[in-house]
Amino acid sequence: MIETITTDIYRIFIEPISRAIYNVFIVHDRWAQWLSGLEMTLSVTFFALLLGLGIGLFISIIRVSHDAFEKPNIMLRLLNLIVKTYVSVVRGIPMVVQLAIWAFIVFAGSRNQLLTGIVAFGINSGAYVSEVFRGGISSIDKGQMEAGRSLGLSYPQTMFKIILPQAVKNCLPALGNEFIALLKETSIAGFVAISELTHVGNVIRGITFNPAPMVFVALIYLILVLFLEFLVRKMENKLSQSDRRSGKMVQRLKRKRLVKND
Amino acid sequence: MIKVKGLEKKFGELEVLRGIDEHIDQGEKVVIIGPSGSGKSTFLRCLNLMEFPTAGEIWFENEEVSKYRKGMDLNAHRRKMGMVFQHFNLFPHLNVVENIILSPVSLNRASKAQAIETAHRLLDRIGLSDKAKNYPATLSGGQKQRVAIVRALAMEPKVMLFDEPTSALDPEMVGEVLDLMKNLAIEGMTMVVVTHEMGFAREVGNRVLFMDEGVIVEQNDPETFFSNPKSPRLQDFLAKVV
């Protein structure tokens, strides 16, 4: 009796799963394809993230400065117009379509998948990050700018040393969201034949006549996102150090409920 | 030291200052009182050009500063005038010492080591040496305001402007801030103080100005100002607050 149950379990679950793993990862060294797909996904995400952060920071500072001055000069007005248009255009076009434009028009002559992916996703992300930063900067009390300026600091000095460090802290949860969205959004890059993780999974699904690769793809994304969440939480904790009203020791005791919360 | 001629300030249609003429000498302690919305704070903020005058002139040490609009001149002028705000405006992401040294170090007025030494000396003076590494969130209101005052002092200003420095404090913390301000006054700092603390005005001020509806209605030495107010509006105001 027990013997038949174990054979059944083996026949129904273990055997097909191990066969799937064998076919999907091991035969023809397919694990190498998986690895290169994963690498592409991570590289595109990471560099697009950096590009997006740079663009987003630049745009948000221009827009906030433009709004802060009573009479912004012509240069600032022009820049503001350009970046506003950029944000509208990027947000107004579906990512897949943007990707196609970059791959089939701008980079049509180049076969550099990585570069195409980084530029397409970075420029898209920059528009969204700029709005996140803009919100973060406006959340800072205007007394902070006044205090900085009254001490004789210039506008850029006050911006970079006083306003931005606080703004980044405030918009970290929203930024974390954006990073996670970006990571998952790179899964459409297969549309223009960039061989990232989803693309690799889908190709192997086609070759093996087995839908299992998509489940593995899902699991890998999930693990990556969990890791990103962990990183963002770590950063939030580190940056919120200055908000704590009591020292580290009291914090630790509170966590263990040895001291009452106030 | 400070000369103000025909100062006017409008915010859009709203006329906040409607012609102010005033001289403030070196070492003077001028206290400004008046109902809210009378333009006291705006007047103070025009002195260090946190607000740009719509009309009129402001002279500081024989230079017309009101024509500065941006850049080096403007920042250099502000460095000479320390400002203390009602809501302290300490930088919450920096600890107490970092708050104090940020400006001197960023502007290359002192090396980091020198600035830290100065900061500790200033903190020692206000009895907050043990809070040097604390973040502002862990300080009481009175402690925050005292740190804000020494942060301004770290720039070695020639004038200190106080914009209702005790209005946001719990009553039991007002004293410690006023004591520090009195000490500064005794040391000879030129001070312009907007406040509702009549006791402070009487005790420390050389001169008290009463502002209403954008003009200086009346001014006098504290003794005469409080005991013998001339204009009906000041009489009315004093009757309400004292």
Globally, the shape of chain B reads globular
Average residue-wise pLDDT of chain A: 90
Written as H for each helix and E for each strand, in order along the chain, the element string of chain B is: EEEHEEHEHHHEHEHEEHH
Q: Give the oligomeric state of the chains in this entry, treating copies of one chain as homo and distinct chains as hetero.
A: heterodimer
Strand content of chain A: under 5%
User: How many H/I helices of chain B?
Assistant: 9
Instruction: Provide the helix percentage of chain A.
Output: over 70%
Please give the number of β-strands of chain B. Answer: 10
Count of individual helical segments of chain A: 11
Show unreliable segments of chain B.
none
Structural class of the helix and strand makeup of chain B? Answer: alpha/beta
Unreliable runs of chain A, pLDDT <50, ≥5 residues? none
Radius of gyration of chain B: 18 Å
- Proportion in helices of chain B: 25-40%
Short description:
The complex is a heterodimer of chains A (262) and B (242). Chain A is an all-alpha fold and 262 residues long. In chain A, 79% of the residues lie in helices and 0% in strands.
